[in-house]
Amino acid sequence: MSTAVELRQVSRHYGAVRAVDAVSLSIQDGEFFSLLGPSGSGKTTCLRLIAGFEQPTSGSLLLHGQEAAGVPPYERDVNTVFQDYALFPHMSVRDNVAYGLMVKGVEKRKRHAEAEAALELVALKGFGQRRPAELSGGQRQRVALARAVINKPRVLLLDEPLGALDLRLREQMQTELKSLQRRLGITFIYVTHDQGEALSMSDRVAVFNNGRIEQVDTPRGLYTKPRTVFVARFVGASNVVEGELARRITGSERPFSVRPEHIRFVREAQAEHLGVEGTLVDVQYHGATSRFTVEVPGGPPLNVSLPNGEEEAVRPALGEPVRLAWSRHAMVELEPGA
Amino acid sequence: MGTASAGVVRPLSNLLYRRSTLRLFLLLTPPLLWFGVVYLGSLLALLAQSFNTFDDFTMAVTPEFTWANYQALFEEANADIVLRTVGMAAAVTIASALLAFPIAYYVARYAQGWRKGFFYVAIMLPMWASYIVKAYAWTVILTKGGILYWLIGNLGLTGALEWVLELPYVGGTSLSTSNLGRFLVFTYIWLPFMILPVQASIERVPPQLLQASADLGARPTQTFRTVILPLAFPGVVAGSIFTFSLTLGDYIIPQLVGPPGLFIGSMVYTLQGSVGNLPLAAAFTGVPILLVGAYLAMARRLGAFDAL
């Protein structure tokens, strides 16, 4: 497998603001790779650097082994699906999709046939005559996708493409995007702030924070072995314990995280488990699971998630003193940080 | 007193809140009256006037229906006036569009902060000065021995100027009595009316569309031709309606600058003044209405408004 995109110590500064700060990253050919982070973390700037809309302040960016600094977007073998789709309002859907072929000088009949095929790929057969304004959000999203893949790019960049869609449509499109990526066999680089989306679709995920990468890993790796406090908090629900409380539990002030589903209520302390005592202050019903909030002295409240419907040995009532316990394996030591 | 006024105001505002039709009626009646009576009413009165009969001998207007005034427009002397005016209006419009587009593009896409402010002021400032003052100023600029002759002479281009002034339609005895001079003044005066709508339309083109175009492989010239120009075209059409109809209706610049020969505006002025032939004057004003209507229909068919 060869490298599709490689960033070596790439920075992009706007005056004193370091939007992207010495980021190094290597994305393999055919990979579904997500850039995950809160807004302003540098993930979109990173994507724009790869697309060529921005130039790095320093560092080196390689596309399929070729240095890309200074290469304008129209000479890069990458295409982008924009957050707000950026469809041309004065063109029909078919002309939008065929645009990439039109500017290359492909003759009309051929490019219309290919546009029709691309529309079929995204289940919009027969929509070619319409204007973008006549389509729903989900349909526009598919047109943007068809338009971006018609040039058969080796890398497809997607900038929060599902952000404007409602939840059901978003879940449906996630499945479709993933299957489209498998069928086309091209590299997808996917920017999102939605950790659920990143985990469910990606082969690997880079977690961004303050212009830097905190961790690059598979979704499972990120969830089970977060390396930093930030990743533990951002990816999935987690209890991050640090400072005084951490010292009381483990004997060291080094922060650690433990997932809510790995904590149990127990009647008495067990030697092979770690644990802490507290007071149950809130119970939230989530369908398949219930979430219990437990106040513990010396730190923020801890969350416990228990499946509903099965017999639970201990299911305390509100306001009761409780004892929490978790296995040493469920606990992940973290590097301190933001 | 507070309770007394509240006793009236509150039920009234409650009534207006509940009755949206009444609210709309009260809101729209004054402007609709203004538009209906003052605006459209006077226009219709003008058009009705154009079908009245004018007696050359008694110089009296009688309300007898006739097509004679419109037929008169096709007489050679009158047709000349129409062609002269329309030709100038078209030339001024094209020149304004060509000059305005790069300026508008720069202001909309590149100018930031004080540069943008500077351009707004630079574009608008001439509009604050009196039109008459500017027109007279140009007669001084264009006259023989004026600053433009001086400049051209110092650049060693007097020969070229003389050659240009001998061209048919364009030239004349001097710059200030040539169609070229008149064209320069018109273009100067109406240019802001082209720049502002074009700039507004370019500004409305989302930058993402330009990025999308480049992303799909379009070189800058292709992006300009296939994305920017079609999307900015409604602005050019809007601006050209201004420059075109303002030139069509003008009657002062043709008197001050350029060769002899009437414009539609000056003809209307003459007809309604000393001659008192209001019906023919009204028929003349029908020409710009018809032309701009036809122009809009054509622009629509060419797809100028598809992007709206």
What's a concise summary of this model?
The complex is a heterodimer of chains A (338) and B (308). With 338 residues, chain A is of the alpha+beta class.
The CATH class label of the largest domain in chain A is: Alpha Beta
Total domains of chain B, how many?
2
Taking strands numbered 1, 2, ... along the chain, how are they ordered across the largest sheet of chain B?
Answer: 1-2
Based on CA atoms alone, the radius of gyration of chain B comes out at 25 Å
Count the E strands of chain B. Answer: 2
Rg estimate of chain A, integer Å: 24 Å
Number of helices of chain B: 14
- Biggest sheet of chain A, strands in spatial order? 6-7-8-3-9-10
Q: Strand tally of chain A, please? A: 18
Shape of chain A: elongated
Task: Provide a descriptive summary of the structure in words.
The complex is a heterodimer of chains A (338) and B (308). Chain A is α+β, with helices and mostly antiparallel strands. Chain A folds into two domains: 223 residues, Rossmann fold; 95 residues, RNA polymerase II/Efflux pump adaptor protein, barrel-sandwich hybrid domain (OB fold (Dihydrolipoamide Acetyltransferase, E2P)). Chain A contains nine helices and 18 strands. In chain A, the strands form four sheets. In chain A, strands 6-7-8-3-9-10 form a six-stranded mixed sheet, sandwiched between helices. A five-stranded antiparallel sheet of chain A has the order 13-17-14-15-16, with no helix packed on it. In chain A, strands 2-1-4-5 form a four-stranded antiparallel sheet, with helices on one face. In chain A, helix 2 crosses helix 3, helix 2 runs parallel beside helix 4 and helix 3 packs across helix 4. The two termini of chain A are 35 Å apart. The model of chain A has no long low-confidence stretch (mean pLDDT 91). Chain B has 308 residues and is mainly α. Chain B folds into two domains: 48 residues, no CATH class; 226 residues, Orthogonal Bundle (MetI-like fold), CATH 1.10.3720.10. Helices cover 76% and strands 2% of the residues of chain B. Chain B contains 14 helices and two strands. In chain B, strand 1 and strand 2 form a beta hairpin. The longest helix of chain B has 34 residues. Chain B is globular. The chains are: A alpha+beta (338), B mainly alpha (308). At the A-B interface, strand 6 and helix 2 of A face helix 10 and helix 11 of B.
